[in-house]
Amino acid sequence: MTRENRKYLKEKGIKIYGKPLGRPPKNDSQTASQKYRDKKEAAKRNHVEGKFGQGKRGYGLNNIMARLPETSESWVNAILFVMNLAKLLQVAEKWKGSFALLLKKLKAAIKNLLRLELFDKNLLLIPISNSCGA
User: Fold this and answer.
1) How far apart are CA 91 and CA 58, in angstroms?
2) Closest CA to 100 of 108, 92, 89
3) CA dihedral defined by 45, 46, 49, 51, rounded to 10 degrees?
4) C-beta atoms surrounding 66 within 10 Å
5) What is the pLDDT of residues 58-110, one digit of tens each?
């Protein structure tokens, strides 16, 4: 990682868990708890990197051929949305009783957003009637 990259990450407040620049010290000055913390943080990062890999392999995240940046961003957001829906369905199969309650709350939240006119009603894939029980 270059100094420029490190400076950018520092400005954005992103922690770096890689090796520091320069010559390594003669003796290892990290305590056991610091090593444990670094290992845990690396494990979190591996999980996130794995999700990006899944998006590339399974959902075509690396095959976006849009010309405009806005279109590319829309494609990425749509793919991540589908990945989240897939995960939600996995959770829904485990917790069938709680899922119905979640859907009611989601439907109510969408109705509130429609009332605030934050997005167009015609863009919804699932019609939402005003006679909702939520």
Assistant:
1) 19
2) 92
3) -110
4) 12
5) 888 898 888 999 999 999 988 988 888 888 878 777 777 777 777 777 777 77
